[in-house]
Amino acid sequence: MSALERRLDLSLSIADFEKEVDQRLKRLSKNMKMPGFRPGKVPANIARLQYGQQARQEALSEALAQLFRTAVTAQNLRVAGVPKIEVKNSDNPTHLEFSATFEVYPEVVLHDLNGVEIERPVLAVGPVEIDRTIEILRKQRVRYEPVDRAAAKDDQVSIDFLGKRDGEPFAGGQGKDYHFVLGEGKMLSDFESAVIGMRPGEAKSFDMTFPAEYFSKELAGQSVTFDISVKEVGEAVLPEVNADFAKTLGVEDGDLAKMRAEVEDNLKREVRNRLQARIRNHVMDALLQANPVEVPEGLIHRECEHLMQTTRQDMERRGLKVKELPMQSEWFADQARRRVGLGLILSEIVKQCGLEAKPQQVKRMVEEVAQSYEHPEEVVRWHYAQPERLAEFNAAAIEDNVVDWVLSRVTVVDKPIAFADLMGQQS
Predict the structure, then answer these.
(1) What's the CATH number for 5-104?
(2) What is the CATH number of domain 142-237?
(3) Residues 401-417: pLDDT tens digits?
(4) Which residues form the PPIase FKBP-type domain (predicted)?
């Protein structure tokens, strides 16, 4: 039993319960239709046969919910998650006895941040970073020309493959006309190594072992055999940096100087956001370390389910067949524990220090996001048309307030960061 777990005894009057069941049956029978009887005139014994179980379940559920609410309110308990209510063995002739087991929210005690040191990454955007970004934009617009030669790194290949474990195909281990670029890491390195050197029309079988830390526990560390056939090898052809290229970036007149200026503005905004995300993570790490808090398991489980569902939706948007990929909520436990713990700490800081989001903060964030669209004013109007659309910006503004509050209380050390590291690019 954890320190957050509680247990309450609930007692339900049998007489009151049966009275409520009878009242529900009367309400249900009023709309009951049965051949030979007028509406509302169906005999009580027939209505009980038809709706008795439903009425009892509904009455019991509502009565227990009310008893539980009254009990936790009387003891001033903040319930985290859903209670588990079980019937108790009892000889009480007048009452039904139940036991409710549940978790409560922990008491969050904020500790002093004196002596805490946080690194703040810094980076200035210059010509080198702009040139590198333009090169990345070229690669994003790459096209692949079919070639009749052996596949090499940076080529795009189209293959058919079938994976077998102990001679039998396994879920997610097959594909037809599957495209990927060698060297991008979309496939496991052993798989890519087997494809490199194959020509269009060639086929072969090879053995490989999935990494021990592979996301699918069913395949982690397992040895399998893949049958693959290469259908096409494509060589990368990058676009020239000219007026046509500028037009693909939204510069209608193709002016290269204007294109470069727009790339610089967008890059500075992206760098600023990424730097803020880095410092935010450092702040959150510091808060977790300074304010250890026990997290209710029920909230962790709920957050695991949410993260798994979000991951599924993201994978579906990327065109992956999620149903073929095994996924378990337990994989997200560490991330869920961190998110829930931070949520509890941030909530306490905001409550104690009055760090709620200001309307002008939220508006500024919405307007900044809108700048990346063709008609920013329409994007702003869309977000403000329904208040719930501002929830994400409101949460981000609160986080910014907490970050500023923390940074004002710790020692901040500026540390330069490489452009490639910040942008997550391979060297």
Answers:
(1) 3.30.70.1050
(2) 3.10.50.40
(3) 999 999 999 999 999 99
(4) 154-214
**pTM as predicted:** 0.71
The CATH 3.30.70.1050 portion of the chain extends over 5-104
pLDDT in tens, 262-320: 999 999 999 999 999 999 999 999 999 999 999 999 999 999 999 998 888 888 887 77
Dist. CA 153–CA 139, nearest whole Å: 14
Residue ranges of the chain that CATH labels 3.10.50.40: 142-237
Distance (Å, whole) CA 303 – CA 54:
32
Burial of 117 (0-12, 13-18, 19+ CB in 10 A): exposed
The backbone region for 74, taken as left when phi is positive above 0, alpha when psi lies in -120 to 50, beta otherwise, is alpha
Amino acid (one-letter) located at 161: F
